[in-house]
Structure formats: C-alpha cells, structure tokens
Task: structure prediction
Amino acid sequence: MSRFALVLLATLVSCSPGQNGEPELVAIDVLLDPEPSMAGFSVAANERLRENYPAGFALGAGHAPHITVLQRFVRADELGEVAAAVEEVTRRLDATRLDLTATGYYYHPHEALGLAGITVAPTPELLAFQAEIIVAVQPFSVEDGTGAAFVQNPDGIPISPSTVDNMNAFVPRSTGRNYDPHITLGLAEPPFLDSLLAEPFAPIPLTAV
Result:
C-alpha cells in the first residue's frame, strides 16, 4: 500500500477481547502523507515552535507531518479489512493526483499555549476523496470508543476526554462542509504564534506521495 498516497495509521493496543467480551477497539487515522518538500517545511516550522516552547512535541519519524482525512474507532480484528477498503479507494481515485494547496498558518488556544498548524484548502476534489473514504470505512466503524483504544502516553497521563470526543464525533463534526484539512505543527506561546501568523505566507502547491 506504500505506493499509494493514502496511509492507514493504526494506533494499536492489545488485540485481546475487551470488557464484557466485546472485541478490542483501535483508534485509526486515515491520512495523506505530504511530499518531502512540504514535510520538510513543516518540520522546520515545528523546530521554530520548539525554540519558543522546548517542551512541545517534535515532528519526525515518530510524529510525521500529515493531513488527516478520517478518524474512527474500528475493531482490531477487522483492521485488515479496513486497510483493504481504504486501499481500494486509493487505487480507484489515485490521491497522488489531488492538487492541494497550503494556504497559511493558524493556531487554536490550548490551555496557556496555542496549537499551531498549516491550513490546506478543502477543494471539491479533496472533499470528494474524503467522502469516498468515509463510505469505505463506515461498515467497520464503531461508536462510543474510549481512551483504551489509543496508544497510551508513555508518561502515564490518560488520553484526554477531548481527544476521545473528537474521535467519536469526527463524522460529522470534521467532515464534508465542516472538514478543515491541515498539518499540525506543534505547541508554542500565543505571542510567538501571533507573530508567526503575521508573517507573509504565499500559497504553496503540494501533492501527496
């Protein structure tokens, strides 16, 4: 599947039966992997953010720059079928031909900090692509997943309720007319991010690899 633009990233936990004998769930992110030039641009921006806030997460092999298309909870024992369904869409639509454009920086308040990223234009072609992925994954999607479906934080801090809520509500909260494609960059202090947003940003064409 690596020759296609779409990557299925599964954050797996143990695949033993869950509570009450129910199948184990995993939280997945179906995503577009940007070309190396945009990935490098994102990593460089992340390094600037970490100069301002060193405790922020680093982009790289363990947290690669990406554009989320869909997030869902699925059953662990059906993960292979989910991957096959996603691959069928990538074969048919060839996401490497999507003309994408990075349009600027943004950030959202995150406690005393800001979570920053790069906006990507939600073109009709990208929206149509997302719609096909939603249809492909829907038969395997499970409602009301919990934090147990995620890879757990190494420091033992529980998965935040907002993360779980966002996963459960991704459809329809972040799809269709509500889709906000972006590349997350990291955390920094608001005054620094205000200055970042004030910088000129010429639109950057990009593709997925």
Remarks:
- The chain is about 30% helix and 25% strand.
- The beta strands are 6-11, 25-32, 67-75, 100-110, 113-120, 141-142, 182-188, 204-206.
- Residues 1-17 have pLDDT under 50 and may be disordered.
- The two ends are 11 Å apart (CA to CA).
